[in-house]
Amino acid sequence: MTEPPQRLFVGGAWTEPDGGFYDVVDPATERTVGLAPEASPAQARAACAAAKEAFGPWSRTPPEERAAVLGRAADLIRAQAGPYADLAAAETGATLATARGMQVAVAAARFRRYARVERHEWAIEPQINEAGPMGRAGVLGALAARRPVGVVTCVTSYNNPWANPAGKVAPALAMGNTVVVKPAPQDPLSVYRMAAALEAAGAPPGVVNVVSGRDVAVGEAAVASADVDMVSFTGSTAVGQRIAEVCGRSMKRQLMELGGKGAAVVHDDADLASAVAGIGTTFSFYSGQICTAPTRVLAQRAVHDQLVEQLAAYASRLKVGDPRERDTVVGPVISAAHRDRVEAYVELGREEGATVVTGGERPPHASGFYVAPTLLAGCTNDMRVAREEIFGPVVVVIPFDDDEEGVALANDSDYGLIDYVWSGDVARAFRTARRLRAGGVGVNTVGRNMEAPFGGFKRSGVGRDVGSYALHAYGEVQSIVWPG
Questions:
Q1: Contact 396, 384 (CB under 8 A)
Q2: pLDDT tens string 164-213
Q3: Fewest CB within 10 angstroms: 88, 209, 354, 365, which?
Q4: Which domains are delineated in the chain?
Q5: Strands 208-210 and 178-182
Q6: Where is each Aldehyde dehydrogenase domain found (predicted)?
């Protein structure tokens, strides 16, 4: 499929890009999907200015009316779910099942979720003051009200061009903010479809703006603009650090969802079939291009060899190939450069002394950026392959002796996004989970509750979103006090 050239969306107008267009490439076929607009830094600043101009009227719009826009957008996305999923699969290399169920469907669900208006104000107990130096006796009432932050720049990731931006845009708009979205350069076309749905749903001009481009100056302009009050970013820790430095200079609010190196602690009483199925999602789900993946397996010695054997067998059964074919489980990674990066990490693992149990070679496809599901055993926690985020279908296995060592190894990481615990003893699993330095812990599951707060400890991020926590993230708390 080839899309017509895409225009920028700035101030409610579809705008010609100053920098022309560039090819968006299908990772499975290496053919051009469509032409994405290359914005200039000036156009990024213009988008921020448009969002600032729209902020006042939009923030004063009744929450119910803002919610209605989001609800209509959800309906429009659902109505076009088929072609939207086809485009997402072509842009990202995701399997069709993933594009439909985990990208477009999740985006629609997130807009629908934030079409439910939450009470933004709540009562605080009156304060009774005795007579004294401050004056006569009296009663002070108070309330805390959530107010919108202002203009939010949303910098989104390439691994999910529907659910990730929807998870930022929907709660930000629900709270009365306006947004400038800077999508990942690899797959921005889906984000423009989202903007079109919001426009058709009645979002006023300037409330939603989208500017794309490969030049880092475009993103920098959208972050550094004096019109921007907050930056919401999903991506690598290194880029997040640079954004945080810029935000710090002008005290912009931040929400950072950064890298991960999820530890999967497998105790000796675990249901190994469940653990293998959960850990195996690293090989298949987005081809390992997901920060929440259980990529660092900590296996108690009594089950270590059996777990490695079962993981290797699981990986070897997964079909790698065209994501449009129904029986494909592992599609390509996003680009040739990223494939080379993942392969370099596998070679580094060999050099560090790890054993490649399965995978490690490039699948024999005529085109496409494929990486074989790879299992590295015989690893130690000081190896780079155990400490650095590879972001591909690669799992490393590290043995441990007792529970104390398992927890220590899990916490010996720069990251702390989501960890996992498998044990047949639920009390034991929860004891381990409570000691893990991670923003989330899955106990005998890799599933997520979409109302639970999401975010990381340490270098995995700042702040929490999802569910009502996202409404809090995109709001400021204002206190109002009055005499009773």
A1: no
A2: 999 999 999 999 999 999 999 999 999 999 999 999 999 999 999 999 99
A3: 365
A4: 8-258+460-483 (3.40.605.10), 263-454 (3.40.309.10)
A5: parallel
A6: 14-480
Q: In what order do the strands lie in the sheet with 263-266?
A: 355-358, 374-377, 394-400, 296-300, 263-266, 418-422, 440-443
What stretch of H or E contains 87?
helix 81-92
List all residues 6 or more positions away from 482 whose beta carbon is below 8 Å from its beta carbon. 140, 141, 142
CA distances 406 to 382, 420, 421, 429, Å, are 14, 12, 10, 12
pLDDT digits (tens, 9 = 90+) for 377-415: 999 999 999 999 999 999 999 999 999 999 999 999 999
Q: Are 458 and 416 in contact (CB under 8 A)?
A: yes
Those residues whose C-beta lies under 8 Å from the C-beta of residue 313, and which sit 6 or more positions away, are none
Catalytic residues: 257, 291
User: Binning pLDDT at 50, 70 and 90, where does residue 135 land?
Assistant: confident
d(C-alpha 337, C-alpha 322), whole Å: 19
Q: How far apart are CA 428 and CA 44, in angstroms?
A: 51
For the stretch 222-254, pLDDT in tens is 999 999 999 999 999 999 999 999 999 999 999
Which tens digit of pLDDT belongs to each residue from 181-194? 999 999 999 999 99
Measure the CA–CA gap between 168 and 235, rounded to whole angstroms: 13
Which residues are paired to 394 by β-bridges?
374
Distance CA 185, CA 342 (A): 19
